[in-house]
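During the second year of the project, the team shifted from modelling isolated chains to modelling whole assemblies. The rationale, set out in the original proposal, was that interfaces cannot be judged from single-chain predictions alone. As a representative example for this report, we include one of the complexes processed in the last quarter. Its constituent sequences, exactly as entered into the pipeline, are reproduced here:
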Amino acid sequence: MSTGNSNNLMHLLHLHHSSFLKSQVAHAIGMEMYIRSKQINSKADLASFCKSYIGDYLLYNDAIMIKEIFVALKKDDWDKIIYLSSIYNARKTVLEIKKSSRQAGNRLAERMQSIKKSPLFEKWEENINEKNYLNHYLIVYSIYAYENDFDLYLTIQSYLYFALTNLVEHAIRVIPLAPKEGETVIFDLLEELNETANNATHLTLNDMVNSAIGLEISAMQHKYLLSKLFL
Amino acid sequence: MSKLKGRFQKVNLLDYSGTEQLRLEKTDQSHRVFTNYQVTGLNQVKEEETAELDFIVKKASNITVSMAEPIQVNQKHKQELSLHIEEEALLLWNNHEIMLQPNSEFSRRTKVSLEGDAEFVWAEITHLNQKEYFHYASLMEIWVEEECLAYDPLAFSTSNELIHHHGLIEDFQYTASIWYIADKLPFDEWDIQQRLSQAKHHRAGMTDLDGKGILIRWLSKDLQLLQQEVRDVLSFFDEKITEIRKWRV
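Output from the structure prediction step:
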């Protein structure tokens, strides 16, 4: 457990720094369609979107996956890790989001490997062999967090926090909203975010669900926009 | 458990077996390339039982499977589907509808496995009853050889307090999905796009599945429009598939 170690905490938080290409930005493309069609047009609308994004979409997909990868890494079960990565890859149906998540994963892996060699990354690369399409941001992030002894709860919590703040930062520029309103949306959701992170530690792959059809359709439609605000 | 097993080879049905009320019948409907079958008895499966369907489509066979009637979920309905498609074969799981009545639960697990250049088409419309309790869960797993191409654990329930929020199913009453898995799709994405409307209270989107297929998804409040669009897309697929496969049978 490393939650009390602030140096280690800084290390984890820096993984979300904007110098890394973040996959969470990808879902801004789904949100863009809602903003353009004026369905998200106020602070309340934004809060509603973020609430379902954190409390449903991320909880029942990404958060579960981080937890399951931690469990498999603890058992050194690489077959399971490859299986989980295949499921995560197959679960991302929208191609643009899938590509962006892979691109972010490759960038994070390359950058971290060039800074400090990681035996677990090397093992991962050896195991995926030529299946580079499995190199999603979330998988690389989870492996790195586990190797550096970050706490599971904190790993999920920081992932959710940066996903939320990224979405809100994008949204307030486009709706537009005052920065204060964006901050209120974030502060109001923090308690729920902590609960979501806590819930995720008790869920398994069998609990993975897809209820976010609206978000999925919006992300699909984004490809056909003539001009795009979020890429 | 109610079971239905079938092995399809060209125009013949081999190793067929059905228990309880479940039956598989060849229909009179003639088609240039497809042999058409119909599943009956799904609505008669007892609520405590699971309807287990296990189909194998043999090499180079072109098969359409339709449901005799929409699935009416009055209380509980559970299905386990295993669909295996050998190389050069095509299975079209024809447009079917699931109607969730108040206080009903539907759960289904579908595992589709394709060999080599096998193709698979699936179309489904779900009627969501959002006024009273319902629970819908459907896991679709599509494997092409050893690769998992799609893992789609759809789940909608009134017990999910976020269900009406932006991004989920909001206040739509109908949802639909079409999957078309093929090594080489016989059309361009714009052919599909032009068949999807963006009418009021109706949303549709399409995505490519890593170059190995497409998924089309709808949310709608207009059942007629939704049914029409699903039919249009399927009829377009039929035309393209026939063009290619008519010389192969």
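The two ends of chain A are 37 Å apart (CA to CA). Chain A touches chain B at residues 30, 34, 39-40, 45, 48-49, 51-53, 55-57, 86-87, 89-91, 93-96, 98, 133, 208-221, 223-224 (CB under 8 Å).
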